[in-house]
Amino acid sequence: MKKLLICMFVAILNIDVAPIYANDAHHQVERSQKSYSAKGEVVSIDNAAGKIKLQHEAVSELKWPGMTMFFNVADKALLDTVKTGDQVEFEFVKVDGSGPSITKIKPIK
Ligand SMILES: [Cu+2]
Question: What's the pTM value of the predicted model, to 2 decimals?
Answer without folding.
Answer: 0.69
